[in-house]
Amino acid sequence: MSIARHPRPPELEGISIEKIMKTHVARFSERDPDWEAFEDAKIEGYKRAQRRFIGGGG
């Protein structure tokens, strides 16, 4: 798969694929859990966290 299926957006023209990946790819291992994302997580036994990739949700 060495041929692009679509042209790059103008803001990404001339930027290396490595830099694009570094700025546009989020890895699960690099995200910090938000332990206050769910109200019921404050109850002991129901603790859960959320890792945010696109904004705060809601």
UniProtKB/TrEMBL annotation:
Q: What is this protein called?
A: Uncharacterized protein
